[in-house]
Amino acid sequence: MNVAEEYGSLVFNDRAMRTRLPRDVYKSVQNSVKTGTPLTLTDANVIANAMKDWAVELGATHFTHWFQPMTGITAEKHDSFISPTGDGGVIMNFSGKELIKGEPDASSFPSGGLRATFEARGYTAWDPTSYAFIKEHTLCIPTAFCSYTGEALDKKTPLLRSMDSLNREAMRVLRLFGDMDSRRVTSTVGSEQEYFLIDKALYLGRRDLVFCGRTLFGAKPPKGQELEDHYFGSIKPRVASFMQDLDESLWQLGVASKTRHNEVAPAQHELAPIFATTNIATDHNQLTMEVMRKIADKHGLACLLHEKPFAGVNGSGKHNNWSMATDTGDNLLEPGDTPRENAQFLLFLAAVIKAVDKYQGLLRVSVATAGNDHRLGANEAPPAIVSVFLGEELTAVIDSIDTGSPYAQKDKTTMEIGVDVLPRFPKDTTDRNRTSPFAFTGNKFEFRMVGSSASIADANTVLNTIVADVLAEFADALENAGDFTQALNKLIRKTFQTHKRIIFNGNNYTDEWVEEARRRGLFNFKHTADALPYFVHEENIALFERHHVLTPAEVHSRYEIMMEGYIKTLNIEALTMLEIARKSILPAASGYLRELIDGLAAKRMIEGLTVEPESSMIKKLAALNADLYQKILELEEKLGVESADTTEHGKYYSAVVFPAMQALRAVADDLEVWTAKDYWPFPTYGDLLFSV
Fold first, then answer.
1. Terminus-to-terminus CA distance in the chain, angstroms?
2. Average pLDDT of 490-512?
C-alpha cells in the first residue's frame, strides 16, 4: 500500500472538492464550513452531482445519511443512486436536495419523551464540516438528526452548538488581547482508543460476551497482568496483522491512526490518532470503533470495546486529549514568548480550571454509564472524583500568583502577569500522572474518564460548553474594565485563589485523597445512578440554555435516555446471568457432583480405600450448588420490582439489583474453581485472555 496515495482516497475531502468542483462552488463550500453560511440549492446540486460521480467511480452504488442517534452508535439508511429511465434502464442520480436533507424513520430511536411514540418523522441534515466518505460501496454523508419539531435527537447537534459557543466566547477574549487576525477558535481532540482482542470462536462460546459485551462470570486465572509483561510488549503476529489491516482501512477513510501498542492487560491494545477538530474527531472515533469490529471479524477475532470485559484486569477507556486552537494555528493552551501571549495563556488556563471546578459534576455525568462504573474508581485510571493535574512547575506559577510572591525557578525570570516573560514550558515539565482524571500535558488536557465504548461527543459537548461559559464571564468583566492589565491580573489571581481546590498533583487512587476531596467539597459520584440526576439540576439546564447547546426539554430527554439506558443494561445483564446460571452453570456443577458421588460409592465397595478427598469435595460442591440456587432465586425476586419513577428505579438497580448480581457471580466463580474443566460449560478467563 502506498500510504501517501491511499490516505483519504475514500473521502470526498478538500483535495477531491478542489479537483471536481467549479471554483466558485468550491469557495462557497469553504465559506459555509468556516462561517456556517447555508449553501444555495444550486450549489448543493453541483456538489451532489460531483460527489455522486466521484463515489460511483470508486464503486459506490448507494448513499446514506450517516448520523449518531442517542443509542451511542451510528445509524444509516441506504438509498441507491439509480433512477429509472423511460426505456427501461436506469441512470445514476443524486440531487442537492437528497444531499442536504434526509428523512429516516425516527420512531424506534430513543427520544426521552420529546415526541409521542407513534410520531415517526425525523430529519437528517448534512454537516458540511465533516467530509463524506465511502464505506462498503455506500457514500456516507455525516449528518445531524432532529425531530419533526426541531429538537436534537442525536449527539452531533449539541456538539456543533457547543463548538459555536466556544468559538464565540473565545474570540471575544482574543480581541481583548489585540488578536485581530484570528477568525475562529475550534476545540481539538485526539482520542486514544483502548480495546481487547480475543478469539472469535471462544467469544461465541460466551453468551455473556455476545449479549452484554462483558463477562458476567469468570474466575481469576493463575496469571493475569501481574508481571506487566504485556504492556508495550512485542505484538503477536495475529494481532499485528489485524492492526495493519485496521490502519490501512482507517487511512483510506482519512482517519489519522498514528500509534498502536499492547496495553497493560493481557489481550488489551490501544490505538491513538492525530488531533482533529472535535467534530471530525468524534466522527472518526465512531468510525474507528465500527471498523475495528469488522476487521477483527475478518481475522477470526472479536474486538471488545466494553469498559470492563474482564474482572480482575484493567478495563478500557478513551484518553480524550482536548485543547483550543485558532484558525491561524495558535494553540491557546500553550505558553508563548511574550508577556501578552503568556497572560493570554494564563487566562485560558484559568478558564479551564474554573470550568472544571464549577461544573465537575457535569463532567462526571458526561462519562456516566453502566459499563464505566466497573472502571472508574476501580484502582485504575481514573477515579470517579474529578480533579485537575497541572504538574509541579505550573502549580508553582499559580501559587505565586495566588500569594503574590515572586516566581523564580533555576535561571528563569521572575514572573508578573503581563510584565515579565512567563518561563516557556516544554511539553513535559513534570512526570505524567496516569491517575489524574483531567491532566495538563503541555498544550492540552487529557480527560481520561471517558469510557472505551462511549461516543466522545458527550464529554466534549460538556467541555466546550463549560469553558465557553467561563470565557463569557471573563469577557464580560474585561470588556467593561477601565484598566485592562490591572483587571486581567486581578481576574486571574482571583480565579486561581477561588478554584485551586480542584488542583491535585498526587496519587488519585489513595484513600487519603478520597477523604481530602471530601474536605475540599468535591463530588464523588461512585455510580451512574448517583451521577445522572445531577444533569437536570437547575444550574446545568440554565448553562445549556444560555449557550444554545440544549433546550430544557432536550436536557430532560437526555437524562431520561441515559437513566433508562443504565436500567436496561443492568436488566439485560441480570437476565443473562440468570439464564447462564440456570441452564449452564448449575447443570454443569451438578453433573460433576454426580460423578464424584458415583466415584465415592465405587470406592466404598473396595475395602481399605480412603474416601476423604471425594467426601470433602462433595460437601463443598453441594454447598456451593445450594448457595448458587439460592442466589438465583434472590436475583429473580429483586428483578421483579418495578417503579414508575425513572430516578428511583435507577437507584434501585444500583443499590439492590447490582449487588445481587455480584453475589450470584461470586458463588458461580467459586464453583468454577472447584468444577473439573471438562464439565465447565464455556471458555474460561485463561482461554479468553491468552488464546490469541
1. 26
2. 92
